[in-house]
Amino acid sequence: AQYLEEILREAFSHPAVQGIIMFVGPAQAGFRGTVLADAKFQNTPSGDVVDKLINEWGTGPKIAIADSKGIVDISLHHGDYDVTVTHPLTQYSKKLNVSVRKGFSPDTIHVKMHA
Fold it and tell me: Has UniProt tagged this entry with the keyword Transmembrane (predicted)?
């Protein structure tokens, strides 16, 4: 499990890697080495590593509050995001879609809100 974590972290951090596919299955089907769950579908140590990394690398819902100048700085992985910006006093909200692609350089998105 320790080596699996090291390999996955190294692969994930390499700029040329766009995704990771693992071919794994149950021990009773002849898979050896990297079995993620036992016969009762309980995580093995390798399964715990994969779950930990998915949670660590995932980008679940985030809430960010703007500073006094109305600026928020958020780092995102490649992917498509639905963003909702809400004015704190009026509760007026605006929804937009943001796509982060490979080679995407830091960008600024301006959202004009009516107070």
Answer: no
Q: CA-CA distance, 62 to 55, in Å (whole number)?
A: 14
Q: Comparing C-alpha atoms, which of 42, 34, 41 is closest to residue 5?
A: 34
Distances (CA, A) of 26 to 8, 29, 68: 20, 5, 54
d(CA 60, CA 48): 19
Q: What are phi and psi of 46, to 5 degrees?
A: -65, -40
Note the pLDDT tens digit of each residue in 8-49. 999 988 888 888 998 888 777 887 778 898 888 899 999 999
DSSP labels, the chain: -HHHHHHHHHHHHSTT----------GGGT--S---B-TTS-B-HHHHHHHHHHHHH----------TTS-------SEEEEEEEE-TTT--EEEEEEEE-TTPPP---------
CA dist., res. 105 & res. 20, Å (int):
23
